[in-house]
Each structure stands twice: as C-alpha cells, then as structure tokens.
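pasting for the record
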Amino acid sequence: MRGEASNTDISKWVKKPVTKQQIEPLCNLYNITPLLASIFVRRGLTQGQDLLYYLQDDLRFQHNPFYFSGMEDAVERILQAKEEGEKVLIFGDSDVDGVSSTAILYEQLVRMGLDVQWRLPQEDDGYGLNLQAIDDFAAQDGSLIITVDCGISNNDEIAHANDLGIEVIVTDHHNPPENLPEAIIFLDPKLEDSNYPFDGISGAAVAYKLASALRFADTDFYGAEICLLELKENQEENCFYADCLKIKNLVKIKELHEKIIPGQTSIYDLKLPYFLQGQLIYSWDSRTTLTLLSQLFGRGIEFNINDLRNEVSKVIPSVGNKSSAQIKALSQIAKYNEDSSELSSIYNLYVTYCKKLIAQKKPGQIADEQKDLQLVALAALADIMPMKNENRIFVRSGITSIKKNHPRAGLAELFNKLNINIDALTSTDLSWTVIPALNAAGRMGKAELSLKLLISENAKEREQLAATIHELNEKRKDLVSEACYKVHDKAQESLALHSEKLCICVDQCINKGVTGIVATRLMQDFNVPTIAITFENEICTGSMRSCRGFVATNFLDSLGDIYINHGGHNFAAGFSFYKEKLDLFLTKVKESAGSIVLEDQSSDIFVDAEIPPEHLTPDNFSLIDTFEPAGAESPELILMTRGIKVVDLAVLGKKEPRHLKLLFEAGNYKIPAMFWGQAERLRKDISIGKKYDILYNMSRNYYNGTKTNQLIIKELVPSTGE
C-alpha cells in the first residue's frame, strides 16, 4: 500500500504530511497555489525571508555591499590609490570562482582609471597569495594588493608584503583561520564581525560587492547621511510615536523609537531632539510632521524637514498621492518581513528611488552590473554555494542577463564552441558544460587563459582562447578518467584502514589539477569523505571532498601544522605540504579516522508533492521556474504520481539502445518522459496500457526551437491501484 510513506524495491518514498492550517496562510499572503505552498512547507520554507528568494527575482532584494563592516574602508583605500597614482595588483585563485572574481574587480578598476594589473597562481604555485608574486610586485614599486577568492589564510605572505611596505586588502569567502593575517581590510562574510547578513556567497560575489560599492562611490549618494522621521499621533492613548532612522550609503546605521506622552514626558528626557540634531531630515509628509512637532515642542524649537514624498514622486510618480500606511500596504519587501513598519517601508522605497535615479543618470553602471552578474552566477554554481538567499537572485539574474542581454565577451565565444543553446540555458547547462570547460584551464595549470578570455577586448583573441580552453577540457576529461581507473582499487582498500569512514589515495599518476575531481568521484562511489593526493617536485598537493555532514576544513586543521598552505569550505578543501611530511600526514589521518562521525545513510527519498494524473497539467510545470536554480541546500523537486497510464514506449540511444522514452496519459494531456538506462525493462515490467506509480523530476526539452515539457523518471513501479 502506498500512503504517506511507500515501499519500493529500491527505496522508501516519504511524503511528509502537511495541514491546511500550514498551507492556507502562505497561499493568502503570497498569492501562491496550494501545491506550491505544500512544497514550501515540506521543505521547511515558511518564513518570509526564505520565500522571498524563491518568489522574487528583483535585484533590489540583494544585500547592500556596505553591510560589510570593512566596505567603506576598502572603497576609500582604492579611491586613495587612484588619486595618488598607486600601482595595484589583484591576486586571484585559478578556479572559476577565482578567475571570475579577478575579472570582475579588474574590469571595474580599469574603468575607474587605476594603474592595475592581475596575477593568478602559476603552474607550480600553491593555493593563495605567494611570496614570488609579492616580490615581483614590490620590484615594480607596487603599493596595494587586493586578493580575491583567497588571502584569508595567507598569514606569512601578507606579513611579507607588510614588511615591503605593501598594503593588502583581503576579499575572500573561505573559512577563516583562528589567527587572521595582518591585512589592512577584510571583506569575508564568514568573519564573525563582517556584519554581512549572509555568509554563503562566493568569492566572485564578494568581488562583485566591492565593484558595486565602487560604482556607488561615483554617485551623489555616496557617504551622504540622512535621517528619516515618522511622527504619529495616537489619540486613543493620548501620545505620540516617533520613529527615526539614520541612513548612510543606503544602509541603516542607527534607529530610535520613542513614545511621547504630552504633559508626562519631559523634554529633558527625550532622545528625539538629540537624535535629529545636525541631521538632514526627511519625512514622508513633512507638513503633517511639522504640525505634530509644533504641538509637541511649540514654536520655540525650529525643525527643518524635507518632504520625501515630493522628491520620490518625481522618479516614481505612482506614490505621489499615497500615505505612509498605503506605501507599507503596497510594499513587496514588507510582505516578506513580519516586523516591517511604515518607516521601514518608506526606507525601502527611498532605496528604490535612489537606485532608479542612479540608473537614469548612470546607465553604464547597470550594463556593468549585468556583465558582472553573469560571472557571479557561474561562480555560485562552480563553488557549489547554497542555492538560497541572494545566491538564487544572482544565478537567476545572471542567466536572465545571458539570455536577454547576450553573453558577455568571452562567454559568447565559449558558448559558441560548446554549442550552448542560449534560449534553453539553465543552471544545469552552466554546471555540467560551461563551468568544467572554464575550470579546465586552471586545472591544467593555465588559469590565465580563462581570465584572458573574459577580459580580452580582441574578438579574434577570444575565439582562439575559447578553442584552446575547449581542447584543454577534453584533455582534462581523459586525465580524470585515467586517474580514477588507476586509483579506484587502492582507494577502496583504504576504507578498511580508516574505519570505513574515510577514503584516501596517493598516486603520482593523478595530475595535480584534477585532485579535486578525483576526490569527488571517489567520494560519490564510496559515500565517505575522500582525500586525493599527488606529488611533484617534492611537494604534495591534495584535495578533500566531504559528505554526510563532516566538515573538511575542521578535519584538516586538526592534523596540525604540517602544511605549506590549506583552506577551503566545509565540504571542499585543498592543501599542500612537503613530500617529506607525507608519512606523517597519512599517520595522522589514520589515527584520526576512528573518531570521524558521519551522518547516517538513508535510502529514503523525500517527496516534495504528489500530483494526481489529472492535475499533471502544463501549468504545473511552472514549478520548474520557482525552484530553478537547483543546487546545494535546494535540490531539484522530486514529485510523485500514482496510477498513471503508459500509452507509448520507445528505446533510445544512438550507439547503444539503453534508455526508455515513455508517453503517459495525464487527464486531457499526454506527457513524455525519459527513463535513463532502463531499456532492459521494456516489456519485462514496463508495458503499454498499464498503470504505474512514478517518482520524477520535471524538466523541459528544447529541440529545433520547440520547447516540450517532460518528466525525468527516477523510479517506477507497477501501481497497486489503491
């Protein structure tokens, strides 16, 4: 019997129960269907701030770069470098995230007219900033280095730069070490004092935030402070409520909320006059606010209040006749924030007004932002950033920019070489086709090729670079296949030596540029954290890929001070050490393996929703758009339909007929489906005319300019008819 939990020969299908009381509020508040609301509830997405990033695409929902506690200092230091004609070096990493970060910041500094150059790790370099790069830059009388997607662990290197009189700004997103280097400024969302509201962004996103802040610095709003004031009379309580908000660089920096009771609250006890003193004050309705202030303080105190409604309505005419209460009722942002007040809604509208004004006066900034977002989208997917919060907006906006504004220079040539269909582009295409190609150059020790592809102004050069990168990617595929074949058995044997909790392989046959891919493949094969190590010129280079809740960087840290360098993320890390320490490393790993704690494996498949055959309509395929992009912490939807009839069957496969194409009867519609690698089941247990229970993903197939909805079958079993 298939109920809320259904048993198959392969797994258990688990559909968590949800109630009408859980679903209805979401439907009413966000105007969504019960089906979509039930999926959100099953995924634990019930708070407005979570749903926002699934239901909204507008870039105004991204976080302000000046939330970073060090952002204004970073902007000021770069503006100083421009003013004084300093030489600036951007040092990035060799993967897609690092190359994208470098391209984003390099192009922005070039636009600003700085004397800027870039550098990436060369073939024999380890991860992160290196001493040779610093010495070479010092020889040119360079004075400012900005690291992108690296630097947070480069204590010795940054100390060396300081000794040479070179200041370093670190922009990174990796887990910080216990002892930070002595950089002048840090921009890393994972630092406890970063003040940034989301720590899951890529290195390229951090570079994009810095580039955005530098663009903002070229507007009239940079550095300007204003104070928003909302004063309301409550006649029932015979009091006044004053709400004040100080803003700088469009970020809230200080708030005051005060209740004033005439005849009881002494003017000497009030904070309001001091809060407003010396401020440029705006109120949505200045006339009413001035009248109320006169009631409170008489004519003895003069307030200079600017009318915000009058200013904003010049750019957004639709709000010219709206009260602050009406503004809140219309606010999209307020809908997703339970604690939103009228003042918060006015603040959000003010930010929108400023951005619209900037877009009108500086349209070039919008074009630059769109170019950047294409790379930020790539980086988020490449570094397997969690697909939540503003990462969802980054990826969606980047893909939309590629489709509507065309791929930026460099990507256009690579897309052409890879035969990418722009109209049908999805995050999956980027993850499985574009990103591996861009990464291949770095893995083969030639990361500069990918960077040059992205920043070159010469179309012919970009064509040649795209062709070279394509060739390197094909070579990379061969290296991975050969290495995995050679080390697989030794890796499997290592499980027993490490309490079946960790897999490790050490072999010179692994090209050091593909240790991460080899580790990933082995981790997927054995479902345990995996380390792959190779060696060259007396230096061992390795990668660790983790799973089942085990944090890679913590494990590597626990092995002691044996590295030349190491660092990374919770589930993907890299390291290097001298070959003489290999035995020590292996011993420490073996000793530590027994204490590894992994989350339990489960054969359960959690079903997002059950859709009856008659409701499997084209309209419901819009779910794809809501949950695209899929990725870390936001996997593809898994849906279930019971008792659906097969009305046609075919075997597909050019070289080898291994796949099944099915056609299902769904009410008034016929829905095609693919069941990969299951051709042998034709007429064995899958036949035309019979009904089945299916587990599937929704997808769209693009062929010859035609878009067709289809299902991708994960599991299929004969229906019990219940």
